[in-house]
Structures are given as structure tokens and as C-alpha cells.
Amino acid sequence: MEVVSDRVRPLTTTSTSQRSSSAWTWSLASLPPDLLEQSCKRIAIVAMVFAGLWMLPLVLNPVALRFAPDDPFVAGAAWPMPGRLIAGLGLLLSLGMVFVAAKLHPAPSVLLNTGLGFEVATALLIGILNQWQPVLVPGRASWICIIILIYPAIVPNTPTKTFIAAFAAASMDPLGFGIAMARGAVPAGEFTAFTALWYFLPAYLCAALAVVPVHIIRKLGRQVSKARELGSYRLGESIGTGGMGDVYRAEHRLLARPAAIKLIRPALLSTSRREATVILERFRREAEAAALLRSPHTIELYDFGVAEEGTFYLVMELLDGLSFEVLVERFGPVPPERAVYLMLQACASLAEAHSTGLMHRDIKPSNIFTNRLGLEVDFVKVLDFGLVKADPGNGVEQSDRHAGVHGAGGRARRGDRRPPPRRILAWGGTLLDAHRSAYLRGIQSDQDDAPTH
What we know:
Blueprint: H1 16-19, H2 26-30, H3 33-67, H4 83-103, H5 108-130, H6 144-154, H7 159-170, H8 172-182, H9 193-209, H10 211-227, E1 229-230, E2 233-241, E3 245-252, E4 258-264, H11 266-269, H12 273-292, E5 301-306, E6 312-316, E7 321-323, H13 324-331, H14 336-355, E8 358-359, E9 368-373, E10 376-382, E11 389-390, H15 421-449
Antiparallel strand pairs: 1-2, 2-3, 3-4, 4-6, 5-6, 7-9, 8-11, 9-10
Helix pairs in contact: 3-4, 3-5, 4-5, 5-6, 5-7, 5-8, 6-7, 6-9, 7-9, 7-10, 14-15
């Protein structure tokens, strides 16, 4: 397992008591957390697109008026005024929605409802602009129809709220027509009720159709949520990829305990039967080894099993730290004192494994993590026992070159006076407490010498 987590971030899901709160809407209850977060991000994207559309008439219409001042389409009654004013208000409204979306991102339900208000307000500006000098052509669709159909497909909400907002947006053209009549811009008797009905009807039909994508997204959201439930855990975002499977952030549905879940990629099991058997055996060995070992420096296993659809999963503790590989890549060489302190902790984990007759066989920088555990820092965890192998003898089993063994030698050769790795680990374990005390005294000294604020 190459990567588990660089740091712990709170999940976007909430506890059981929060789920029962009235603040939870359908979208929050039905959409997976990452899809809900994407939906909230799309509000800002939609607002930026609307801002760009409002910029078009502000930029293009003055140019068109200069080259075609007599064109009735360009030189309509709404341009240059109040067209510029309305387009300017639309631009400010859209940019303001981008700012609001950033501020309300921690409150998805409030942001989604605010987005519906933004949809209706945009439709109002378009309705006033459309009907400033009414030209009713039966069967011609308004620009508002595009907003009514596209917005809920990009930013879904509850079906009821979606329909209410869509119906209100569809009513903005009739409202704009009413404002034009109040201004005296509509000659008496020029438009009949039948003409107005067929002119405004397409927008209301679009409002009725707006709930269709919402129902589809709702169904898909439930299917995704169900697919992401493994036993008592609910999957979150992907946080790492290994050679045998993918690692996801997860949360226990009742305890709200964060965890990391490792899944075998289905593509690996769809190869030859022999390869699939080897992969499953490695996965089982990793689970059994992690469950057998009790060293605090060995990754803790919470659960292991097979989902209903046949997916093999392994639930482990979620680490708040980074691997040795990432540590060196980001911060450069590690000071000798710290390196000794970290490596002796890894030796403590491996010493316990060797004492029970198990060889890790895949020790490498990406499989050793330094993390924060409670108030302790630089607490080492050894991961990925997928290549573990029983070693009942006193020596070391012959390395398996096909399994990607790192640093494993064969049995002790005749005349080789070097002590076996198990004895080396035992020596390292006796020095661990002394080095740990010295290192922690150094950390405390640095903290005492640090200036106070």
C-alpha cells in the first residue's frame, strides 16, 4: 500500500445525530459526499459561465451598433439602455454568486438553496430584458427555457424545490410582460390571451421536465451510496493506489470512526484464474498478519471481508502522516538522530513479526509511515503485509524473486558470520527506548527554546 494519507481531513459526511437533523435535505441524504461536494462546486462554475454570457452583450452590442446602427435586432428598444444596466446587474449577480459559493461551501444545503434563488433572479433579469419591447411569437422558446433545463441537471436539489424554482423562473417572462404593460409598452388589443398562452407555454413545459434529471440523479445517487457501503463502513474519496488495489477514506456508519479501506481492483481478478488465486491469497495473508500482530508500530486492522457483489476489502486505521518516501522527497535527507529513531520503531514492528515466524518481504520507504498518534509525533507504522511469508526456522526463507522482495537474502551461507535478521532486530529493540528518550528530550528542548507569543 503505497499511500494512505498525507494528513487527516474531516470527511464531508456527518454523524448519525446530524443525519437526523432537519437541515438535511434529500440531496444531502441521497448523494454520496464527494458527489455532493462536486454539485456545490458546480454552482460556482455555473455562475462563472453566466457571468461570461452577460459579458457578451456588454462587449459585442456596442461594436455591432457602430457597424449596423439601423439593424432592428441590434438597435432594439432595450439597447443601449436599459440593456446595459440589466446586463451589468446580471454580471454582478453572477460574480457575487461565485463569492457566495466559496463562503457557503461548508453548508451544502444552504448553498444549494441559494443557488435556486440565483436561478430565479437570473431568469427575472432575462424576462425583463426579453419583454422590454414585447414581440410575442407563438411557439418561440425563451432563453429562460435553457436555464430551467440545464441548471437542475448540473446542480441537483430536491424534486419539490427544483420544480418550485423552475416554475418561478418560467413565470419571469409573464412578469416582464406585465411590467411592459404597466409601462405602456404594449398597445391595447395587440396581443390576445391565446397568443400569450402559446408564447409562454414552452417555459412552463420545461419547468415540468426539469424534475426528470433530478429523479435520475437521485436514483443514481442511491445506487452509488449503496455500492459504497462495505459492511459497516461507507466509502469516501480515493486517497491512494497500490499494486494490488485502491485505498479509500471511509467512515463507520454508527461510530463515525475514520478508517482506510483497501479494495482489490476487479480488473486484477478478471485475469487468469491462477493470477486471481495468487492475488486473493496475498490479500488474505495481509489481513491475517495484520490481525495477528499487536505491535503499536504495525498498521491496525479493523475488519476484513467480502461485499455482496464479491469485492474483497480490508479496513485499517487511517494514518495522519506520510511515508518515508514522501518525507524524503518533500523535505530532503533526514537527520541521523531522527533516522535512527524512526528506523528502530520499524524494527520493533518487524521484530514482533519475526518472533511469530512471519517475514514481511516488502520493506521499502513507501510501506513505512511516520505519523501523529494522539500527542506523539514521528510515530512509525509498518504497512502492507501482502507478501508476508511464514518462517518457522531460525534462518530466513529463500527470497521469492517473482514477488518483488526488497532486501531479503537466502538462508545463511556456510561460513557467514553475520547474525540473522531476527537477532539484529532484537538488538535494535533493546536500543529503542534509549534512542526514543534522547530524541524526545531533543524535541522538548526545541519547544522550550522556541519563543512564546
